[in-house]
Design brief:
This protein is α+β, with helices and mostly antiparallel strands. 18% of the residues lie in helices and 40% in strands.
Length: 176
C-alpha cells in the first residue's frame, strides 16, 4: 500500500470514528425517548393550554402533559414522538455556558441542534420523583417536570425513567 493511500485510509477511519463518537455523545444526552398515543385532551382550565394524557405503544409508560395548543395543536388519537434530553447540541456537549435561548437555530446560520428536528421544544426542571405505591407496581416510578408552569408527569418502569435523575431537561415533541 502506498503512503498516500495509507494516509487517506487513516483519515477515513479517523473521520468515521469521530462521527460515531459524536452520534454516541448525542445519544447520551437523550435520556428518554418514546412514541405515545394521546388518549385524553382537556381544555377545561385555560384557553390556549390543554392537559393531554398519553400512553406508550407498549402500555408501560403513562404521561400527562400541559401543552400550548395554540402553538402546537393536538387531537385525541394522534401519536407523538417524545424525547427528554439534557442538551440540544448534536455533539452531546452541555449547554451550561449559554442559556437555552442562546442556542442558535440552523436556519439562522448557527449550528444544527436537536431542536431543528422537532416541532415543539421546552426547557424545564425536574422537581420530584415518586415511587409507585400501588400493589404490583413496585418497580414503577413517577417523575414530575415543570416547563415554566406547564407541567408534565411520567409514570413508568424504573429502568426506563431512572436516567431522569437530573436537574434541567429539554422536552422535544413531534408528530409521528
Amino acid at each position: 500500500m502506498t503512503s498516500a493511500l495509507r494516509s487517506s485510509w487513516n483519515n477515513v477511519r479517523l473521520t468515521s470514528n469521530l462521527q460515531l463518537s459524536s452520534m454516541a455523545a448525542a445519544g447520551d444526552t437523550q435520556l428518554f425517548e418514546e412514541s405515545v398515543s394521546i388518549t385524553t385532551l382537556d381544555h377545561a382550565k385555560y384557553d390556549r393550554v390543554a392537559r393531554i394524557g398519553a400512553t406508550s405503544s407498549d402500555g408501560t409508560v403513562v404521561m400527562t402533559l400541559d401543552i400550548n395548543t395554540e402553538l402546537y395543536p393536538c387531537a385525541v388519537g394522534e401519536t407523538l414522538h417524545v424525547v427528554l434530553a439534557t442538551s440540544l447540541s448534536m455533539d452531546g456537549s452541555k449547554d451550561d455556558s449559554r442559556g437555552w435561548r442562546d442556542v442558535a437555530r440552523q436556519g439562522l446560520g448557527g449550528e444544527a441542534t436537536l431542536a431543528d428536528m422537532y416541532d415543539y421544544v421546552c426547557h424545564g426542571k425536574i422537581y420530584k420523583f415518586e415511587d409507585s405505591d400501588e400493589s404490583g407496581k413496585e418497580e414503577f416510578i413517577k417523575v414530575y417536570i415543570s416547563f415554566g408552569g406547564l407541567l408534565m408527569a411520567i409514570e413508568g418502569p424504573y429502568k426506563k425513567l431512572t436516567s431522569l435523575r437530573v436537574d434541567y431537561i429539554y422536552l422535544l415533541l413531534k408528530k409521528d
